[in-house]
Each structure stands twice: as structure tokens, then as C-alpha cells.
Amino acid sequence: MDDIVVVAQGTQSMRNIHNDPDMDLSVEALFSIMQERQKRYAKYAEQIQKVNEMSMILRRIQMGIDQTVPLMERLNNMLPESERLEPFSMRPDGESASK
């Protein structure tokens, strides 16, 4: 392994970090923190991917509904008036269109 040499600012003194136990602990601690952060971000990325997939599924469902409802209305209007169904609505009963 190559040794890392640090030159202190303002002086010509150098030290070998490879043999510095304090620096080893600092590097290990930093590495551990970065690993934990990477795991957290990987979980976030996975959750975002699931949300994106769900959003895409919901868009496809909405497109299907948008295509089907006009066909249902057209078919319903072809029926004799006495056999027609009430207009289709995706809103629960009692919920106004202004909400």
C-alpha cells in the first residue's frame, strides 16, 4: 500500500499517516459513517423507485378509465331511456363535484 504524506501548511515538516493510529481511527470512523449514509440513501432510492412504479401503474389505470368511461356513456345512451343506467361517477355517494 502506498503511504500518504501530508505536508503541514506553513512548515516543511511531513509525517507518515500510514503509521498514525489516531488517523486510522478517524478514517475508520469516517468510512463507517459513509457506509451508513450509503445504506440509508440506497433505501431512499429503493423507496423512490417503488413510488415511481406505483405512479406509473396509476397513470395507466387513469388512462384506461379515461378511455372506458366515454365508451360506457355512449353504450348507455344507445339503450332505451327506460333501461339506461345512471351516469357513471368515480366519486363516493354524497361527495360533490366541487371538492
UniProtKB/TrEMBL annotation:
<dbReference type="Pfam" id="PF10158">
    <property type="entry name" value="LOH1CR12"/>
</dbReference>
<dbReference type="InterPro" id="IPR018780">
    <property type="entry name" value="TBORCS5"/>
</dbReference>
<keyword id="KW-0458">Lysosome</keyword>
<keyword id="KW-0449">Lipoprotein</keyword>
<comment type="similarity">
    <text>Belongs to the BORCS5 family.</text>
</comment>
<protein>
    <recommendedName>
        <fullName>BLOC-1-related complex subunit 5</fullName>
    </recommendedName>
</protein>
<keyword id="KW-0472">Membrane</keyword>
